[in-house]
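User: I'm writing a tutorial on reading structure tokens. Could you give me a worked example: one chain, its sequence, then its tokens, then a sentence or two explaining what the tokens reveal?
Assistant: Sure. Here is the example chain.
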Amino acid sequence: MEKEILLFFNKTIANSFLDTFMVFFTKEGWILWFPIFLWIIFKYQTIKNYKFIVYLILSLILGFFISDWISLEIKSLIQRVRPCWTEYFRGVVGCTRSYSFPSNHATNAATGATILFLFLRGLKENGSVKINSNLIKILQIYTISLALLISISRVYLGVHWPTDVLGGIILGIIYGYVVFKAVTGLISFKRVFYFTLIVLSLFRIYFILHGPLDLTPDEAHYWEWSRRLDLSYYSKGPMIAYLIAISTWIFGDNSFGVRIFAVVCSFLSSIFVCKITKKFFDEKTGFLSGIIFQFMPIFTTFGVIFTIDSPFILFWIISIYIFLLALENQKKWWLLLGIVIGFGLLTKYTMAFFYLCMFVYLIKGKKFLLPTQFSTENHLKNPYIYFSILISIIVFLPVIIWNIQHDFVTLKHTAGQAHVFDGLKISLNYFLEFIGSQFVVVTPLIFILGLYFIIKPGRLNINLAVKWFLISFSMPVFLFFLVKSIQGKVQPNWAMTAYVPFVIVLSYALKEKFHKKLVLSSIIIAFIFMVANFALPYLNLPAKIDPTARFKGWKELAETVSEIRKELEKNSRVIIFSDKYQISSELAFYLKDKPKVYCIPFGRRMNQYDLWESINSELEYSATTNLNRKTINGIYIVYGKKNSPKPQVSAAFEKCEPEYFTAYKKNVKIKDYTIFKCYNFRGMILSKPESY
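And here are its predicted structure tokens:
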């Protein structure tokens, strides 16, 4: 039946006029809606209902985004073949390689038409504007007719089956109605707050699925950890590995599986920032703080990229909230606080700063009462607070045990990262670099205003205990890393927990008339930074000035290595290795069968690969198995263009032949690599890493 209907439109009634007519509706039909869109805006403007103008624009943007995205996902799931891939096709336009059900054109057209139809009905029902009801009906019919013509054009041109179009129309009507109700229902701060979180989370999921960024080297390395679960790891605690193991077990070993918890952690972080702020002030301020949190670039980044900072900031914020509850003298919260701090320590060791912030508050905060009458008067003598610390240490015990078993390599690594052995040095460059980096990750105005309001809280009419609480959970962390930057390099994200109180104080400052415009400007700038964060990877800037360049080109490298591997596997077993954990981890993730990839310890500091099986274990494997092919060949990948491998690699094989590869992204050069094809592995003499 579908074939007959398709042939009727695509061939029986076909003529040159209809060809031109249908091609126009397929490609430019949406233009004919534009006058209706402008007319609706004009009519709402005449009755000064500017809110509904914003609703209309927001509904269309959100509606088209959701309908186009979900339709793509359904296509990938169902994988129905387009009719233009069959013998039925009469070529008028090209045939894409995407799948068929549902028709995105039909879905998007029905979504847009539904939204415009409902806003036209809103004008008709508005008693403050005089509009001929027959005119509204005509415009509504016109809007629906355009959607139908766009949909029918897809069948006429032979690029979709009739049920593709029918399914798209049904989905589009559902999307349009749901979006219209959701947007026009934004009548309270609570609804705006949850609407913002849901929309941003959906966009982040879309970006993860279809964005231009491969996994970062750290994400790929943490995924490698998740394949080898342990009590702890060389540079970090085990929490990140456990979370990735859970998400990839559910969603598979793909980018979505690795990164989905970044979206979840960001969503929950805003919820708990809101709860903390409501404890201090009021519900409206709480919802504002949760939204501002989402706009700050440093927190936005970790809402997509899943490194240790995504769960770490969540555990920090939850700990603050539970600490407030514990101050209400409820004993159970001290136990839970210890558990959550322990989770934070299993994620990132700078969670230990929470103890410092907590005691800084308790030492002086006992003089004050917080708005909900938490009394801190006797908590320094309260045994439950020390019980809480004990619980956190017990939760952290796996890391301690693992380090005892591995010669305290984590402690040595952390000391190296913190430049403990460099001695007392004064470096103005590192200091200025740290300040400049905070301007980027927090935005200049939020950094200056937040710091000003924290240091000079008297400028705002805030309860004394709240002022001291915000200072206690911000300044100790910030000042530590500020002073540290004079002695050595401090990474931009190390002081991130200091900025949670900035979010809280800025949300409160919005209520002050004197500061409102300045604070609002800082939030708008932060929003622009957030948008730029997502837009930057699409600009295809030269690698030297593109901060996202290190996230690109890994799939292309893996494809090239995969081809070389196929060639070598015809006559031998193949091992893949590098001297950089970044290359090894990315290849382990992006090669199709997720093979074991090694990282040899030459000319670098120690990493987690040095604690796993060495490349020489491949010889032991061959000796203990009944493999017909005893020969082992290797693929050795390094950065840059090099004519020969390291001497240790040359000595381990009969010969190595270089092959050069340059990763490109849309004709923009990303990075050069050399891929050595090495023959007849005989074992490698391995030395210890040069440093920790």
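What the tokens reveal: Strands lie at 573-578, 597-599, 632-639, 653-665, 668-681. The two ends are 70 Å apart (CA to CA).
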